[in-house]
Amino acid sequence: MTVLDDTIVQEVSIAAPRELVWRFFTEPDRLVEWKGTGAQLDPRPGGIYRCVINEQAVAVGEYVTVSPYDEIAFTWGWEGDEHLPPGGSRVTVTLTDVGDGTHVRLVHSGLPHPRLALHDDGWSRYLPALVAAAQAAAGQAGSRG
Fold first, then answer.
1. Which pLDDT band, with edges at 50, 70 and 90, does 114 fall under?
2. Is residue 107 predicted with pLDDT exceeding 50?
3. Are 93 and 106 in contact, with CB atoms under 8 Å apart?
4. SS3 of 46, please?
5. Closest of 106, 130, 134, 133 to residue 1, by C-alpha
6. Pairing mode, if any, of strands 89-98 and 101-109?
7. At what angle do helices 113-144 and 18-26 cross, to 10 degrees?
């Protein structure tokens, strides 16, 4: 984990193929396996990114970059938050093959300083959940083969 100015950088390795990990950022059912209780996603530039974390926290933005299996970027902010409104920051996720798995690099930029620690803590909890969900899905896919 790295925090620089208005940016958080976190990285994890997942024992799952990039194509599967990608789905956890683009498919609502997959997203809620590791983050939130509901999602509305339209993974194309200008399409909505909306993740209901819980009753008090709803992250909203729109997809900016969608390069299948390589990079996805979306804006991010919170419904009802004047300090970080919907679309007020940007999350960029880069996926890279590493052996039989995937290296995930998440960069969350444009965060106001009062929100840095909160988001750093959030990603520190959610990225391990992504690892567990994607690896479980990869194991299920492998057992069907």
1. confident
2. yes
3. yes
4. coil
5. 106
6. antiparallel
7. 130
Taking CA atoms, 95 is separated from 8, 25, 38, 46, in Å, by 17, 11, 24, 21
**What is the extent of the structural domain holding 53?**
2-144
CATH number of the domain at 32, please: 3.30.530.20
Total structural domains in the chain? 1
* Residue with token string 């409104």: 85
Tell me which residue of 134, 102, 128, 109 sits closest to 27, measured CA to CA: 134
- Tokens 């896919």 -> residue: 141
Residues 6+ apart with CB under 8 A from 75: 49, 61, 62, 64, 86, 87, 88, 89, 90, 91
The C-alpha atoms of residue 142 and residue 58 are separated, in whole angstroms, by 34
Average pLDDT over residues 49-65: 96
Q: The tokens of 34 are what? A: 């590791």
CA-only gyration radius of the chain, Å: 15
